[in-house]
Protein backbone atom coordinates (compact mmCIF):
# COMPACT_ATOMS: atom_id res chain seq x y z
CA UNK A 1 0.00 0.00 0.00
CA UNK A 2 1.38 3.41 -1.01
CA UNK A 3 1.18 5.66 2.00
CA UNK A 4 -0.15 9.21 1.74
CA UNK A 5 1.17 12.01 3.91
CA UNK A 6 -1.17 14.89 4.70
CA UNK A 7 0.36 16.15 7.95
CA UNK A 8 2.87 18.71 6.68
CA UNK A 9 2.06 21.26 9.40
CA UNK A 10 3.44 18.72 11.91
CA UNK A 11 6.56 18.07 9.87
CA UNK A 12 7.64 17.77 6.24
CA UNK A 13 9.69 15.08 4.50
CA UNK A 14 13.35 15.96 3.98
CA UNK A 15 14.28 17.00 0.44
CA UNK A 16 16.86 14.77 -1.29
CA UNK A 17 19.05 17.84 -1.84
CA UNK A 18 18.92 18.60 1.89
CA UNK A 19 19.96 15.05 2.77
CA UNK A 20 22.81 15.21 0.25
CA UNK A 21 23.99 18.57 1.59
CA UNK A 22 23.95 17.27 5.18
CA UNK A 23 25.70 14.01 4.38
CA UNK A 24 28.37 15.91 2.45
CA UNK A 25 28.97 18.21 5.43
CA UNK A 26 29.02 15.33 7.92
CA UNK A 27 31.69 13.63 5.83
CA UNK A 28 33.89 16.61 5.10
CA UNK A 29 33.20 19.40 7.56
CA UNK A 30 33.24 17.98 11.06
CA UNK A 31 35.18 20.72 12.84
CA UNK A 32 33.91 22.56 15.88
CA UNK A 33 33.05 26.09 14.72
CA UNK A 34 34.59 27.50 17.91
CA UNK A 35 38.01 25.95 17.17
CA UNK A 36 40.57 28.37 15.79
CA UNK A 37 42.28 25.84 13.49
CA UNK A 38 41.31 25.32 9.86
CA UNK A 39 38.81 22.51 10.58
CA UNK A 40 36.93 24.77 12.99
CA UNK A 41 37.12 27.75 10.69
CA UNK A 42 35.67 25.76 7.81
CA UNK A 43 32.64 24.89 9.97
CA UNK A 44 32.41 28.51 11.15
CA UNK A 45 32.36 29.76 7.54
CA UNK A 46 29.47 27.42 6.79
CA UNK A 47 27.48 28.73 9.79
CA UNK A 48 28.12 32.33 8.85
CA UNK A 49 27.09 31.74 5.24
CA UNK A 50 23.75 30.26 6.32
CA UNK A 51 23.30 33.07 8.87
CA UNK A 52 23.87 35.63 6.09
CA UNK A 53 21.42 33.76 3.82
CA UNK A 54 18.68 33.90 6.52
CA UNK A 55 19.46 37.57 7.25
CA UNK A 56 19.10 38.43 3.54
CA UNK A 57 15.74 36.63 3.42
CA UNK A 58 14.43 38.57 6.44
CA UNK A 59 16.17 41.88 5.55
CA UNK A 60 17.96 42.01 8.91
CA UNK A 61 21.61 41.79 9.98
CA UNK A 62 23.32 38.38 10.43
CA UNK A 63 24.05 39.24 14.09
CA UNK A 64 20.29 39.15 14.71
CA UNK A 65 20.01 35.45 13.80
CA UNK A 66 20.73 32.93 16.58
CA UNK A 67 20.79 29.23 15.74
CA UNK A 68 18.79 27.03 18.13
CA UNK A 69 17.58 23.44 18.23
CA UNK A 70 13.97 24.12 17.18
CA UNK A 71 10.98 26.44 17.22
CA UNK A 72 10.16 25.41 20.78
CA UNK A 73 13.59 26.44 22.05
CA UNK A 74 13.48 29.76 20.17
CA UNK A 75 10.09 30.67 21.62
CA UNK A 76 11.05 29.56 25.15
CA UNK A 77 14.26 31.54 25.01
CA UNK A 78 12.61 34.73 23.79
CA UNK A 79 9.72 34.74 26.28
CA UNK A 80 11.73 33.64 29.32
CA UNK A 81 14.66 35.92 28.61
CA UNK A 82 12.34 38.92 28.14
CA UNK A 83 11.14 38.33 31.71
CA UNK A 84 14.49 37.32 33.23
CA UNK A 85 16.66 39.94 31.57
CA UNK A 86 14.53 42.74 30.13
CA UNK A 87 12.25 43.36 33.10
CA UNK A 88 9.00 42.39 31.41
CA UNK A 89 6.17 42.60 33.99
CA UNK A 90 3.20 41.82 31.75
CA UNK A 91 2.60 39.58 28.72
CA UNK A 92 -0.30 39.98 26.30
CA UNK A 93 -1.04 36.88 24.24
CA UNK A 94 -3.97 34.81 22.96
CA UNK A 95 -5.35 31.30 23.54
CA UNK A 96 -4.41 30.39 19.96
CA UNK A 97 -0.68 30.05 20.60
CA UNK A 98 1.34 26.86 20.21
CA UNK A 99 1.99 25.10 23.52
CA UNK A 100 5.66 26.10 23.54
CA UNK A 101 4.54 29.73 23.74
CA UNK A 102 1.52 29.31 26.02
CA UNK A 103 3.40 27.07 28.48
CA UNK A 104 6.40 29.44 28.57
CA UNK A 105 4.04 32.31 29.38
CA UNK A 106 2.28 30.28 32.06
CA UNK A 107 5.63 29.38 33.60
CA UNK A 108 6.59 33.06 33.75
CA UNK A 109 3.24 33.83 35.37
CA UNK A 110 3.64 31.09 38.00
CA UNK A 111 7.36 31.42 38.67
CA UNK A 112 7.93 35.14 38.19
CA UNK A 113 4.54 36.64 38.96
CA UNK A 114 4.20 38.16 35.49
CA UNK A 115 0.71 39.51 34.74
CA UNK A 116 -0.82 37.79 31.71
CA UNK A 117 -3.66 39.21 29.59
CA UNK A 118 -5.25 37.09 26.87
CA UNK A 119 -7.06 38.49 23.84
CA UNK A 120 -9.90 36.13 23.05
CA UNK A 121 -10.25 35.56 19.29
CA UNK A 122 -13.64 35.77 17.58
CA UNK A 123 -15.45 32.61 16.38
CA UNK A 124 -13.45 32.73 13.13
CA UNK A 125 -10.20 32.64 15.12
CA UNK A 126 -9.23 36.25 14.34
CA UNK A 127 -7.58 38.56 16.86
CA UNK A 128 -9.09 42.03 16.98
CA UNK A 129 -6.04 44.30 17.16
CA UNK A 130 -8.08 47.16 18.62
CA UNK A 131 -8.29 44.98 21.76
CA UNK A 132 -4.49 44.84 21.79
CA UNK A 133 -4.40 48.62 21.63
CA UNK A 134 -6.93 48.92 24.49
CA UNK A 135 -4.89 46.58 26.69
CA UNK A 136 -1.66 48.41 25.94
CA UNK A 137 -3.26 51.77 26.75
CA UNK A 138 -4.63 50.43 30.04
CA UNK A 139 -1.29 49.86 31.81
CA UNK A 140 2.20 51.32 32.09
CA UNK A 141 3.76 47.97 32.98
CA UNK A 142 6.69 46.89 30.81
CA UNK A 143 4.95 44.61 28.32
CA UNK A 144 5.77 41.84 25.87
CA UNK A 145 3.14 41.00 23.25
CA UNK A 146 3.29 37.46 21.88
CA UNK A 147 0.94 36.75 18.97
CA UNK A 148 1.63 34.11 16.34
CA UNK A 149 1.86 34.95 12.64
CA UNK A 150 -0.11 31.97 11.30
CA UNK A 151 -2.01 29.44 13.34
CA UNK A 152 -0.84 25.83 12.92
CA UNK A 153 -4.34 24.34 13.37
CA UNK A 154 -6.71 26.65 11.48
CA UNK A 155 -4.27 28.58 9.29
CA UNK A 156 -5.49 32.08 10.24
CA UNK A 157 -2.91 34.72 9.42
CA UNK A 158 -2.46 37.70 11.73
CA UNK A 159 -1.42 41.12 10.44
CA UNK A 160 2.01 41.23 12.10
CA UNK A 161 2.91 44.56 10.52
CA UNK A 162 -0.09 46.26 12.12
CA UNK A 163 0.42 44.42 15.45
CA UNK A 164 4.07 45.51 15.47
CA UNK A 165 3.11 49.15 14.80
CA UNK A 166 0.64 49.12 17.69
CA UNK A 167 3.28 47.61 19.99
CA UNK A 168 5.87 50.22 18.96
CA UNK A 169 3.40 53.06 19.50
CA UNK A 170 2.93 51.85 23.09
CA UNK A 171 6.55 50.94 23.84
CA UNK A 172 5.83 47.22 24.09
CA UNK A 173 8.13 44.48 22.81
CA UNK A 174 6.61 42.26 20.13
CA UNK A 175 7.27 38.54 19.60
CA UNK A 176 5.64 36.55 16.84
CA UNK A 177 5.84 32.77 16.48
CA UNK A 178 6.59 32.53 12.76
CA UNK A 179 7.28 28.79 12.68
CA UNK A 180 4.49 28.09 10.15
CA UNK A 181 5.30 31.02 7.85
CA UNK A 182 9.12 31.10 7.70
CA UNK A 183 10.24 29.95 4.24
CA UNK A 184 6.59 29.76 3.12
CA UNK A 185 6.01 33.50 2.78
CA UNK A 186 8.07 36.60 2.01
CA UNK A 187 9.02 38.20 5.31
CA UNK A 188 10.67 41.61 5.51
CA UNK A 189 11.59 42.58 9.04
CA UNK A 190 13.05 45.90 7.87
CA UNK A 191 9.44 46.86 7.18
CA UNK A 192 7.70 44.87 9.96
CA UNK A 193 8.80 46.12 13.38
CA UNK A 194 8.72 42.71 15.06
CA UNK A 195 11.35 42.35 17.82
CA UNK A 196 11.51 38.56 18.03
CA UNK A 197 10.52 35.67 15.74
CA UNK A 198 11.15 31.94 15.50
CA UNK A 199 11.86 29.30 12.88
CA UNK A 200 12.05 25.51 12.67
CA UNK A 201 13.74 23.84 9.68
CA UNK A 202 11.59 20.70 9.68
CA UNK A 203 8.52 22.71 8.68
CA UNK A 204 10.01 23.36 5.22
CA UNK A 205 11.69 20.06 4.26
CA UNK A 206 14.77 20.63 6.43
CA UNK A 207 15.98 18.47 9.30
CA UNK A 208 14.54 18.23 12.79
CA UNK A 209 16.59 19.54 15.70
CA UNK A 210 17.57 22.86 14.13
CA UNK A 211 15.98 26.28 13.92
CA UNK A 212 16.75 29.87 14.75
CA UNK A 213 15.51 32.85 16.69
CA UNK A 214 15.40 36.33 15.21
CA UNK A 215 16.37 38.75 17.97
CA UNK A 216 16.38 42.43 17.08
CA UNK A 217 19.67 43.87 18.25
CA UNK A 218 18.16 46.97 19.85
CA UNK A 219 16.26 44.81 22.39
CA UNK A 220 19.48 43.69 24.12
CA UNK A 221 18.01 40.23 24.81
CA UNK A 222 20.35 37.82 26.60
CA UNK A 223 20.52 34.03 26.41
CA UNK A 224 19.14 31.53 28.89
CA UNK A 225 21.45 28.59 28.11
CA UNK A 226 24.79 29.46 29.66
CA UNK A 227 28.22 28.05 28.86
CA UNK A 228 30.53 28.95 26.01
CA UNK A 229 30.38 32.11 23.92
CA UNK A 230 28.68 30.52 20.91
CA UNK A 231 26.03 32.50 19.04
CA UNK A 232 27.26 35.82 20.47
CA UNK A 233 26.86 34.31 23.97
CA UNK A 234 23.11 34.14 23.40
CA UNK A 235 22.96 30.37 23.09
CA UNK A 236 25.82 28.36 24.51
CA UNK A 237 26.59 24.93 23.06
CA UNK A 238 28.38 23.67 19.96
CA UNK A 239 26.22 24.39 16.94
CA UNK A 240 24.56 21.63 14.90
CA UNK A 241 26.72 22.25 11.82
CA UNK A 242 25.20 19.58 9.54
CA UNK A 243 21.69 20.56 10.66
CA UNK A 244 22.41 24.22 9.91
CA UNK A 245 23.71 23.21 6.46
CA UNK A 246 20.42 21.33 5.97
CA UNK A 247 18.42 24.36 7.12
CA UNK A 248 20.35 26.52 4.65
CA UNK A 249 19.70 24.15 1.74
CA UNK A 250 16.01 23.78 2.65
CA UNK A 251 15.63 27.57 2.86
CA UNK A 252 17.37 28.03 -0.49
CA UNK A 253 15.02 25.51 -2.15
CA UNK A 254 11.93 27.06 -0.53
CA UNK A 255 12.86 30.60 -1.53
CA UNK A 256 13.90 29.67 -5.08
CA UNK A 257 10.60 27.82 -5.62
CA UNK A 258 8.26 29.80 -3.36
CA UNK A 259 5.93 31.03 -6.08
CA UNK A 260 5.69 27.66 -7.80
CA UNK A 261 5.22 25.74 -4.52
CA UNK A 262 2.65 28.23 -3.18
CA UNK A 263 0.72 28.12 -6.47
CA UNK A 264 0.68 24.33 -6.54
CA UNK A 265 -0.29 23.97 -2.87
CA UNK A 266 -3.09 26.54 -3.16
CA UNK A 267 -4.44 24.62 -6.16
CA UNK A 268 -4.37 21.38 -4.15
CA UNK A 269 -6.07 23.10 -1.22
CA UNK A 270 -8.81 24.51 -3.49
CA UNK A 271 -9.29 21.04 -4.96
CA UNK A 272 -9.55 19.54 -1.45
CA UNK A 273 -12.17 22.12 -0.44
CA UNK A 274 -14.17 21.42 -3.60
CA UNK A 275 -14.04 17.63 -3.34
CA UNK A 276 -14.72 17.50 0.40
CA UNK A 277 -17.64 19.93 0.06
CA UNK A 278 -19.11 17.83 -2.75
CA UNK A 279 -18.57 14.35 -1.32
CA UNK A 280 -18.96 14.79 2.44
CA UNK A 281 -22.39 16.37 3.00
CA UNK A 282 -22.47 18.67 6.02
CA UNK A 283 -18.69 19.18 6.16
CA UNK A 284 -17.54 22.61 7.36
CA UNK A 285 -14.19 24.35 7.49
CA UNK A 286 -12.84 25.92 10.66
CA UNK A 287 -11.49 29.42 11.19
CA UNK A 288 -10.42 31.12 7.98
CA UNK A 289 -8.76 27.99 6.64
CA UNK A 290 -11.00 27.67 3.55
CA UNK A 291 -10.48 31.31 2.61
CA UNK A 292 -7.82 32.73 0.35
CA UNK A 293 -6.25 34.92 3.06
CA UNK A 294 -5.23 31.89 5.16
CA UNK A 295 -2.05 29.83 5.33
CA UNK A 296 -2.04 27.90 2.05
CA UNK A 297 -0.55 24.79 3.65
CA UNK A 298 -3.38 24.18 6.17
CA UNK A 299 -7.05 23.21 5.80
CA UNK A 300 -9.02 22.60 8.97
CA UNK A 301 -12.19 20.59 8.31
CA UNK A 302 -15.08 19.67 10.59
CA UNK A 303 -16.69 16.33 9.83
CA UNK A 304 -20.44 16.29 10.59
CA UNK A 305 -20.23 13.27 12.93
CA UNK A 306 -18.36 12.32 16.08
CA UNK A 307 -15.55 9.88 15.46
CA UNK A 308 -12.56 10.14 17.80
CA UNK A 309 -10.95 7.19 15.98
CA UNK A 310 -10.83 8.92 12.60
CA UNK A 311 -7.06 9.47 12.67
CA UNK A 312 -6.44 5.81 13.43
CA UNK A 313 -8.93 4.61 10.80
CA UNK A 314 -7.34 6.82 8.13
CA UNK A 315 -3.90 5.62 9.17
CA UNK A 316 -5.06 2.01 8.70
CA UNK A 317 -6.07 3.00 5.18
CA UNK A 318 -2.56 4.41 4.61
CA UNK A 319 -3.36 8.10 5.09
CA UNK A 320 -1.41 10.06 7.69
CA UNK A 321 -3.34 13.05 8.93
CA UNK A 322 -3.88 14.72 12.26
CA UNK A 323 -6.90 15.99 14.13
CA UNK A 324 -5.14 19.01 15.53
CA UNK A 325 -1.56 20.04 16.16
CA UNK A 326 0.91 17.15 16.51
CA UNK A 327 1.52 17.96 20.17
CA UNK A 328 -2.17 17.84 21.10
CA UNK A 329 -3.46 15.21 18.68
CA UNK A 330 -2.74 12.41 21.17
CA UNK A 331 -4.82 14.16 23.82
CA UNK A 332 -8.44 13.15 24.30
CA UNK A 333 -9.80 16.66 24.93
CA UNK A 334 -10.14 19.18 22.09
CA UNK A 335 -7.30 21.66 21.65
CA UNK A 336 -7.61 25.22 22.96
CA UNK A 337 -7.79 26.45 19.36
CA UNK A 338 -10.77 24.20 18.61
CA UNK A 339 -12.44 25.33 21.83
CA UNK A 340 -12.15 28.90 20.55
CA UNK A 341 -13.65 28.33 17.11
CA UNK A 342 -16.21 25.55 17.66
CA UNK A 343 -19.54 25.77 19.48
CA UNK A 344 -20.21 23.31 22.33
CA UNK A 345 -22.66 21.52 20.08
CA UNK A 346 -20.01 21.15 17.34
CA UNK A 347 -17.49 19.86 19.86
CA UNK A 348 -19.99 17.23 21.05
CA UNK A 349 -21.19 16.08 17.66
CA UNK A 350 -18.42 16.74 15.09
CA UNK A 351 -14.82 15.74 14.39
CA UNK A 352 -12.05 18.17 13.45
CA UNK A 353 -9.49 17.08 10.88
CA UNK A 354 -6.37 19.05 9.93
CA UNK A 355 -5.26 18.42 6.36
CA UNK A 356 -1.89 19.97 5.66
CA UNK A 357 -0.14 20.03 2.31
CA UNK A 358 3.30 20.41 0.77
CA UNK A 359 4.51 20.86 -2.83
CA UNK A 360 4.67 17.04 -2.96
CA UNK A 361 0.91 16.62 -2.35
CA UNK A 362 -1.10 15.57 -5.41
CA UNK A 363 -4.77 15.63 -6.40
CA UNK A 364 -4.65 11.82 -6.26
CA UNK A 365 -3.74 12.09 -2.57
CA UNK A 366 -6.85 14.21 -2.02
CA UNK A 367 -9.00 11.74 -4.01
CA UNK A 368 -7.71 8.92 -1.79
CA UNK A 369 -8.54 10.93 1.35
CA UNK A 370 -12.07 11.71 0.14
CA UNK A 371 -12.68 8.07 -0.79
CA UNK A 372 -11.38 6.88 2.60
CA UNK A 373 -13.60 9.38 4.41
CA UNK A 374 -16.61 8.22 2.38
CA UNK A 375 -15.88 4.59 3.27
CA UNK A 376 -15.55 5.49 6.96
CA UNK A 377 -18.82 7.45 6.99
CA UNK A 378 -20.63 4.67 5.06
CA UNK A 379 -19.41 2.19 7.69
CA UNK A 380 -20.71 4.51 10.42
CA UNK A 381 -24.16 4.66 8.77
CA UNK A 382 -24.27 0.84 8.42
CA UNK A 383 -23.25 0.41 12.07
CA UNK A 384 -25.90 2.91 13.20
CA UNK A 385 -28.62 1.20 11.12
CA UNK A 386 -27.63 -2.23 12.48
CA UNK A 387 -27.69 -0.90 16.04
CA UNK A 388 -31.20 0.55 15.47
CA UNK A 389 -32.45 -2.86 14.26
CA UNK A 390 -30.85 -4.86 17.04
N1 LIG B 1 5.15 27.00 16.82
C1 LIG B 1 4.28 26.53 15.91
C2 LIG B 1 3.25 27.44 15.37
C3 LIG B 1 4.38 25.20 15.48
O1 LIG B 1 3.51 24.75 14.58
C4 LIG B 1 5.39 24.37 16.03
C5 LIG B 1 5.47 22.95 15.65
O2 LIG B 1 4.48 22.27 15.48
C6 LIG B 1 6.27 24.92 16.96
C7 LIG B 1 6.13 26.23 17.34
C8 LIG B 1 7.36 24.09 17.58
O3 LIG B 1 8.38 23.86 16.66
P1 LIG B 1 9.43 22.65 16.89
O4 LIG B 1 8.74 21.41 16.48
O5 LIG B 1 10.58 22.99 16.01
O6 LIG B 1 9.79 22.66 18.32
UniProtKB/TrEMBL annotation:
<keyword id="KW-0663">Pyridoxal phosphate</keyword>
<dbReference type="InterPro" id="IPR015424">
    <property type="entry name" value="PyrdxlP-dep_Trfase"/>
</dbReference>
<keyword id="KW-0808">Transferase</keyword>
<dbReference type="InterPro" id="IPR015422">
    <property type="entry name" value="PyrdxlP-dep_Trfase_small"/>
</dbReference>
<keyword id="KW-0479">Metal-binding</keyword>
<feature type="domain" description="Aminotransferase class V">
    <location>
        <begin position="4"/>
        <end position="369"/>
    </location>
</feature>
<dbReference type="Pfam" id="PF00266">
    <property type="entry name" value="Aminotran_5"/>
</dbReference>
<keyword id="KW-0408">Iron</keyword>
<protein>
    <recommendedName>
        <fullName>cysteine desulfurase</fullName>
        <ecNumber>2.8.1.7</ecNumber>
    </recommendedName>
</protein>
<dbReference type="GO" id="GO:0051536">
    <property type="term" value="F:iron-sulfur cluster binding"/>
</dbReference>
<dbReference type="GO" id="GO:0031071">
    <property type="term" value="F:cysteine desulfurase activity"/>
</dbReference>
<dbReference type="InterPro" id="IPR020578">
    <property type="entry name" value="Aminotrans_V_PyrdxlP_BS"/>
</dbReference>
<keyword id="KW-0411">Iron-sulfur</keyword>
<dbReference type="GO" id="GO:0046872">
    <property type="term" value="F:metal ion binding"/>
</dbReference>
<dbReference type="InterPro" id="IPR000192">
    <property type="entry name" value="Aminotrans_V_dom"/>
</dbReference>
<dbReference type="InterPro" id="IPR016454">
    <property type="entry name" value="Cysteine_dSase"/>
</dbReference>
<dbReference type="InterPro" id="IPR015421">
    <property type="entry name" value="PyrdxlP-dep_Trfase_major"/>
</dbReference>
<comment type="similarity">
    <text>Belongs to the class-V pyridoxal-phosphate-dependent aminotransferase family. NifS/IscS subfamily.</text>
</comment>
Amino acid sequence: MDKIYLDNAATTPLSEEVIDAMVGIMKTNFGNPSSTHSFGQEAKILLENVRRQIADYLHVTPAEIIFTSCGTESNNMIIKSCVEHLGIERIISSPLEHKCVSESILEMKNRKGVEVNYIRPDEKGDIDLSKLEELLKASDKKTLVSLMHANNEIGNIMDIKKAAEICKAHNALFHSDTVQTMAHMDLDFSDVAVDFASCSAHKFHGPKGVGFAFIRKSTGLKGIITGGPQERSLRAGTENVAGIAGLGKALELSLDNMEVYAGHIQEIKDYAIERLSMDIPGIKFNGRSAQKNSLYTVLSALLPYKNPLIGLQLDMKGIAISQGSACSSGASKPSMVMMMVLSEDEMDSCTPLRISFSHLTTKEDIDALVNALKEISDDLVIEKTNAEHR
